[in-house]
Amino acid sequence: MRRPPGDKEHLGRMAGLFAVGLLVFFGLQWFMVPPGFGRYGHYRSGALDDNRDRPLRYAGRAACEECHTDVVEARKGSRHERVGCEACHGPLATHAASPGEVKPALPDPRAICLRCHLANVARPRGFPQVQIPEHSEAGPCSACHKPHAPEIK
Amino acid sequence: MNVERREFLRKTGKLLVLTASAAGAWEALAAGRPEAAPTYNMFDHWWGMAIDIEKCIGCGNCVRACKEENDVPRDPRFFRTWVERYHVDPADLERPIVDSPDGGYNGFPEKYKAGDGTKNFFVPKLCNQCSDSPCVQVCPVGATFDSPDGVVLVDKTYCLGCRYCVQACPYGCRFIDPRTNTVDKCSLCYHRIARGLTTACCEACPTGARRLGDLKNPEDPIHAFLRDHDVHVLKPQMATHPKTYYNALDGSVR
Fold it and tell me: Average pLDDT for residues B199-210, to the nearest whole number?
């Protein structure tokens, strides 16, 4: 008949099981937790790079003004001086990257103006707004107002 | 002898630090991501947004720019930023009439008449970039987090699509992208601000009603804006400590 295990053997088995459990735990942790997790907080630090490494669609005003110095000059002192270029011309990072190849189309010289200047009760009172057709029935706004310096002198 | 040892330690220390930072920069350059080279230090910034309701004309430029820049689904249920129109009886602030046709993507066709005794104004909305964001607190897997520069971001590879954060956001700023079945939200154009540009919505805003600001930079004009205007945040009772500040925020705005 087999002798029942003594105190030492009991402890030894427990220690062995514990060691195996720890090994499995650390193994799983090593396998499942991605690198960089917990570097700055409870998230994967690589997610910051993922969020950063996306392409631009809007080049930004500084990029436009590097080349189009004549427009900068034309807008000086006008009420449109501080309007961003791409607010009317649309996203043009592709044009800024290769100005020779990508030629942007000009915005519609009536629809683009009405987007901001068509009268609307909810618009701030001091903002210049026009009633259509009272102000102008049809035709491009640029017939009277130059978009880069809209004041009629 | 002692002095020499100190000098030696100092020089070796400097050399070690320099080598480590050069190696970091070289790694990023070699990986073809020069923008990830450590020229942008996350710990030097704390981003927020200042919105001037008195300047918002409801043109919808920000909504279109945001969808374009961040490849947001064109379906008019999904927005990272949108514009609301408020129609308020001044004596009944509790019940404003709010509409936002296609989030303001196509502007706001005139609906109300002048001189009927109501208040009418536009309110642009976006992620409030809370300092204590409920969405971050509830995410079970660490897929949404506060970046060291104060932007609430999403790890798309880690998101389970469990929608807990969508329910937790008191401002309704999150949605599930139907193409990936993961959550999406305003990232404050993190890819732009890390390159030293402003956000797409600020770039496209013709009146300067939105302005990105670095609250850690003492020279940023946002400090003057916050000082000189009666500034409020949305739902302060939620204790989310938002970093999107509104000038001239009417009491009826939810």
Answer: 97
Task: Judge if the upstream peptide bond of residue A133 is cis by omega within 30 degrees of 0.
Answer: yes
Nearest to A122 among B122, B155, B194 (CB): B122
Q: Which of B42, B57, B69 sits opposite A116 (nearest CB)?
A: B57
Taking CA atoms, A8 is separated from A12, A15, A21, A52, B20, in Å, by 6, 11, 20, 58, 51
- Reply yes or no on whether the pLDDT at B152 is more than 70: yes
Q: Taking CB atoms and an 8 Å limit, are B58 and A123 in contact across chains?
A: yes
d(CA B152, CA B243): 11
Q: What is the pLDDT of residue B229?
A: 96
Nearest to B206 among A52, A55, A87 (CB): A87
Cα atoms in the Cβ-side hemisphere of radius 13 Å centred on B86: 24
Q: What is the pLDDT of residue B245?
A: 97
Residue A87: closest C-alpha in chain B = B204
- Taking contacts as CB-CB distances below 8 angstroms, the residues of chain A near B146 are 41
Summarize pLDDT for A107-128 with one digit per residue, the tens. Answer: 999 999 999 999 999 999 999 9
Tell me the per-residue pLDDT of B58-89, one tens digit each, with 9 for 90 and over: 999 999 999 999 999 999 999 999 999 999 99
> What 3-state class would DSSP assign to A44?
strand
A76 Rama sector, left if φ>0, alpha if ψ -120 to 50, beta otherwise: beta
